[in-house]
Amino acid sequence: MAAPALFTRIEKLLLENGWEKTWEDPGGQRWEKDSDAHYWRYWQLTINFMPDGNHYCKLYYGSSLKEPETTCHLRSLRPVLKHRRLIR
Predict the structure, then answer these.
(1) H-helix segments, 17-61
(2) Is 47 exposed, middle or buried (0-12, 13-18, 19+ CB in 10 A)?
(3) What pTM value is reported for the model?
(4) Strands of 42-48's sheet in order across
(5) pLDDT of 42-65, one tens digit each?
């Protein structure tokens, strides 16, 4: 499992940038952020904690949550969100 410090930093980063944790269990978390565009509802981020330590994230946008916009490793989350201007 990734270091607890990594989880703490990710949680702090998301909370400071307007994300809201909407679900959590030992296997993962779901976060949501309102969209600036009036025609899409929100962004959704799911973080899946894997037993082997390969934790990954899926980022969805809009009202259709069938296919993620992107999938990345937890350690790569910051640049992915920064590229989409979802964090400062």
Answers:
(1) none
(2) buried
(3) 0.84
(4) 20-25, 28-34, 42-48, 56-61, 70-73
(5) 899 999 998 888 899 999 987 667
